[in-house]
Structures are given as C-alpha cells and as structure tokens.
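Chapter review: from sequence to fold.
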Amino acid sequence: MTQYGVKNNTTFLECLPKAPQASIRWLIQRDNDRRKEVKLSDRVLSTEHGLLIRSVQLSDQGLYYCLTTENGFKRTVAKIRLRVLSEAMVSVLTDKQQSPWAWASSLHPKVLLAAFSPAESLAVQQYCKERKALQNLQQRQQQPQPPGPLRGDLAKLKPLLDRRKSRNRRNHVPEV
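The token string follows.
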C-alpha cells in the first residue's frame, strides 16, 4: 500500500496485529537498501495500532514493514510505502485557481512518472498508449477517403465476384 505524508506534518502508519499479545517491530527499507529497524524517538512513536510520525521529513520516505511476533512465529502484517510530499507540492495540488493538473505541465514526463510506483507507472503508460491510439483512429476517420480504385484485398475480390456464375434459383412451382 502507498501512503502519502506531507513534510512537517504528522502521519500514521496503521498496523493491527491478529492477536493483542503479539509484539510489534517496525522496519524501514530506503532506496534498495537493506531493511533496518525504525529508531523510535519523541518524533517517531510506536503505538498498539501503528507507527505515529510527528513532523514527517524527506528522510522518513521508504518502505515500512510491520512485523509481529507471537509464540516464536514472525509475520509481516503490513507493508506500507511512505511517500513524502513537499509543502510546495501540496500547495500547488490544492490551489483552487488552477486546474487540478496545471502543475504537471511544467514538469518533464519522466520526473512526473517518478512520483508513481512501478505499477502506477505501467498503468499511466498503458493509458497514454491507448489514448494515442484513439487519437490516431479519430484523425484517420476525419480525413476524407479519396474516391478512386479499390485497394488491397477488395481489389482482388472484385474480379472474382464479376466472373462467378449467377445462381440458378428454382422458386417457381413446377407445372403438372
């Protein structure tokens, strides 16, 4: 699951263990690095329902794992990708004066796609591909077809149809 936090604001990563007596441990993995245990502090608190991060920073961004241990059995209960948005990005996204996606026009498409997960990026690329194909089809339909000789397979079929024998229909009642 992907969750977004706003820089210098509070965010909560939920983790509900199956049993109340299970112990909870949080790990974080940043940018293809190894998983490391989350260092708890006054700013990062572990509660019985999850992890509370007060004043989220860009360094908090990463993949969080909620591990529970009960009777010697370890289990990953939650896997949350935390993405931290800058205050400037949030103000642009929430600006009522602009259209919702006006901010995106100033970014290079690759920079924009970097904000999405790999699965989201594939979905965006698939959408763009389908949209482009639809636009090409609409452009072809709007262009008038020049009258002229038959093209392709239809041109080969026309002489065959002209040469075939006419069908002898016997619909009349025989005279007796």
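Two observations follow directly from the output. The mean pLDDT is 80. The beta strands are 2-6, 11-14, 23-29, 36-37, 44-47, 50-53, 62-70, 73-85.
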